[in-house]
Amino acid sequence: MKALKSYYAVIFSSTQNKNIEGYAEMAEKMETLAKQQKGFIGIESARNEIGITVSYWETLEAIKNWKQQSEHLQAQLKGRQDWYSWYHVRICKVEREYEFLQQQESV
Amino acid sequence: MKALKSYYAVIFSSTQNKNIEGYAEMAEKMETLAKQQKGFIGIESARNEIGITVSYWETLEAIKNWKQQSEHLQAQLKGRQDWYSWYHVRICKVEREYEFLQQQESV
């Protein structure tokens, strides 16, 4: 992930319906597409009872453009119609961060 | 979750080692403890290859206090020594949000 002075995170929390036919393919397609957008930095995703996807963006404009991207709009509609029972989107400014990386043990 | 004018999110992304003995108990204990902290709003968590935990707080001071809480400090140390191969913490200001809730179908 690129080091940037200031950037943004979109936290997408969701619960899904029982029948999520077509969801996995669409999720993969959207991730590929997101990565091609201007201002995209990175994406992280995990799901158990709840799903959390966090995508990182250089500017608020990049987030807005991605939200309005035509194929993404179709995916959002399909998501509300068929796949998600609930979701919550939070657009956040990353104010501080730190990282830990375990030292590799010598072999 | 309470409706608030402005609040903060702590995004904790991580990968774990193979041996995570004691982790589940500690994670549960820390979640219980976090919920008792002043300024705590909510917490969401999911894990597959990567784990993402997002906790929500009323102020940056509440986040700082939780980071320095004594039992939590011990848990963080244990996490770096034994459980986590990597983690990344981002402290974010929630700037905008929206929510979707599926309409219940009539029975």
Structural account:
Two copies of one chain form a homodimer. With 107 residues, the first copy, chain A, is α+β, with helices and mostly antiparallel strands. Chain A has one domain: Alpha-Beta Plaits, CATH 3.30.70. Helices cover 33% and strands 39% of the residues of chain A. The first copy, chain A, has three helices and four strands, in the order βαββααβ. Chain A has helices spanning 23-35, 60-67, 70-83, and strands at residues 8-16, 40-47, 51-57, 84-101. Chain A has a four-stranded antiparallel β-sheet with strand order 2-3-1-4. In chain A, a hairpin with a 3-residue loop joins β2 and β3. In chain A, α1 runs antiparallel to α3. The model of chain A has no long low-confidence stretch (mean pLDDT 94). At the A-B interface, β1, β2, β3 and β4 of A face β1, β2, β3 and β4 of B. β4 (84-101) of chain A pairs antiparallel with β4 (84-101) of chain B, so a sheet runs across the interface. Chains A, B: It is an enzyme of class 1 (oxidoreductase). Chains A, B: InterPro entries: ABM_dom, Dimeric_a/b-barrel, Jasmonate_Hydroxylase-like. Chains A, B: GO terms for molecular function: monooxygenase activity. Chains A, B: Its EC number is 1.14.-.-. Chains A, B: Keywords: Monooxygenase, Oxidoreductase.
Task: Count every beta strand of chain A, where a strand is a DSSP E run of 2 or more residues.
Answer: 4
Strand order of the largest sheet of chain A: 2-3-1-4
The level-1 CATH class of chain A: Alpha Beta
**For this entry, what is the oligomeric state of its chains?**
homodimer
State the helicity of chain A in percent bands.
25-40%
* % residues in beta strands of chain A: 35-45%
Order of helices and strands of chain A: EHEEHHE
Structural class of chain A: alpha+beta
* Average pLDDT number of chain A: 94
> What's the alpha carbon Rg of chain A, rounded to whole Å?
16 Å
GO molecular function (chains A, B): monooxygenase activity
EC number (chains A, B): 1.14.-.-
Organism (chains A, B): Lacinutrix gracilariae
InterPro entries (chains A, B): ABM_dom (IPR007138), Dimeric_a/b-barrel (IPR011008), Jasmonate_Hydroxylase-like (IPR052936)
